[in-house]
Amino acid sequence: MIEIEIRYEATYQYEDTASFSPHLVRLLPRNGFAVRTDRSKITTNEGTDVQYRQDIFDNLVAYCFYPKELDHLTYKLELDLRLEEKNPFHFLLASHALNVPFTYSPEEASVLSAYITPRQPLGPIPAALDRPPKEIPTVDWLVGLNSWLHENIEYERRDEGEAYPPEQTLALMKGSCRDYAVLAVEVLRHHGLAARLVSGFSWEEELPEEDRRAENALHAWVETYLPGAGWVGIDPTNGIFCGHHFIATAVGLTPAHIAPVHGHYYGKKTINSTLTTNLSIRRK
């Protein structure tokens, strides 16, 4: 087992005081065989009522209720985790999913229908992202798709703002990790594969500094459901499949479902704000 500690802090500073809606905080790991939580602690502004729940996607969520007006919101996270080393290709596909295109069984399709249905238009797509002209091994096709996105979409750091629609990312040929993820998930759905968005932490200690794209920030990637393998993580930002270095905190159908912090302020005027973050992930 690998023991790591995560320390994360985010502060939203507002130009004026305001009342706030309940805020949903999705920063707690989705535990599984590869990720085990030894200790977790979320703190926010003094006097806040924090309630812990599981949402419709089985994400662990902290609901924060703010009783008074504030000019800033602060979230601090402390995590001590144990990770089981994971080979992302250690699976066997069911016979009906060995090649793309493939069709889910009726039972699979019934359960996965919400994840198969496209949510946003793609518009014209490059030939490399279109349906292959003939059957091709599923894993080979996914590796190629993931590599093409990594190699052809220029990465840009953008900590705030909504994810670009897939059409915009393809038009600009650049984007942040959440733009890569939204584009990838819609391409997969376009081809009839069940896909969902994921947010969380990417532990990049073993990467050269120039290749670190999630340093000091949260990360977004994709999972697709492959019969026989289950939900398989794919990171188009880095062009790799997801092993034990990826620690998911939320999954969902749309970017709003996986936002690390979700809420709003009440008021009749616009109150500008700035976000500052600090993230440390290190081996114990």
Can you describe this structure in just a few lines?
This protein is α+β, with helices and mostly antiparallel strands and 284 residues long. It contains five helices and 18 strands. α3 (166-172) crosses α4.
Structure description:
By secondary structure, the protein is α+β, with helices and mostly antiparallel strands. The protein has 2 domains: 2-84 and 260-283, Sandwich (Immunoglobulin-like), CATH 2.60.40.2250; 95-258, C8orf32 fold (Roll). It is 18% helix and 39% strand. It contains 5 helices and 18 strands. The protein has helices at 106-116, 138-152, 166-172, 177-190, 255-258; strands at 2-20, 23-25, 35-43, 49-54, 60-65, 70-83, 99-100, 136-137, 154-155, 174-175, 195-202, 219-226, 230-235, 240-241, 246-252, 261-262, 265-266, 273-283. The strands form 5 sheets. Strands 1, 3, 6, 17 and 18 form a 5-stranded antiparallel sheet that branches. A 5-stranded antiparallel sheet has the order 14-13-12-11-15. A 4-stranded antiparallel sheet has the order 4-5-2-16, with no helix packed on it. β13 and β14 form a beta hairpin. α3 (166-172) crosses α4. The longest helix has 15 residues, at 138-152. It is globular, with a radius of gyration of 19 Å. The mean pLDDT is 94.
Average pLDDT: 94
CA(first)-CA(last) distance? 11 Å
Per the CATH scheme, the topology name of the largest domain is C8orf32 fold
Task: Provide the succession of SSEs.
Answer: EEEEEEEHEHEHEHEEEEEHEEE
As a percent range, the share of strand residues is 35-45%
Helix content: 10-25%
Number of domains: 2
Pairing-aware structural class of the strands and helices? Answer: alpha+beta
Number of helices: 5
Poorly predicted sequence stretches spanning 5 or more consecutive residues: none
Extended strand count? 18
